[in-house]
Amino acid sequence: MQRKSIDMWVGLFVLLGAAALFFLAMKAGNMSSLSFEKTYPVITKFDNIGGLKPRAPVKSAGVVVGRVGAIKFDDKSYQAVVTLELENGYKFPKDTSAKILTSGLLGEQYIGLEAGGDTNNLVAGDRIKMTQSAVVLESLISQFLYSKAAEGKEGEK
After folding, report:
1. CA atoms within 13 A of residue 11's CA, in its CB half-sphere
2. Distance CA 60, CA 112 (A)
3. What would the pLDDT profile of 141-152 be if each residue is shown by its tens digit?
4. pLDDT band at residue 28, thresholds of 50, 70 and 90?
5. Nearest to 95 by CA among 81, 113, 80, 83
6. CA R_g for the chain
7. From CA 39, how far away is CA 105, in angstroms rounded?
8. What pLDDT score does 30 carry?
9. pLDDT, average across residues 13-38
């Protein structure tokens, strides 16, 4: 009887471990918030996408309204072309702007949408023309150091 009880507890522990690994894999793959809503594609272009990845959230006012569908490189304009898959339940004006933002100081990157004032809404295949690229921490630090070095040289003269 004792052997069956131990086997049952070990089996339960292994099952819980497998469930935890599955949850961790889904979280790491950004698949934990799957949505089966119908979506429509909207295209944006950015000079620099930083660490943005496919399946990253698209948010407006802090609410997830879609996901990043695909990321490609346009070798004519030398920009990243990002396809957003917005949920059909959310409509945005044609003059909506898109920014690449970061959750917290070093968190994941996502796209933030700011609605404009146009009376016509975006439809499948439309482009968002007003975009703001990701802020790259390394370039900010190098700009800061360069400006401090320039100030130091001016002070010596």
Report:
1. 6
2. 6
3. 888 888 877 777
4. low
5. 113
6. 23
7. 30
8. 57
9. 77
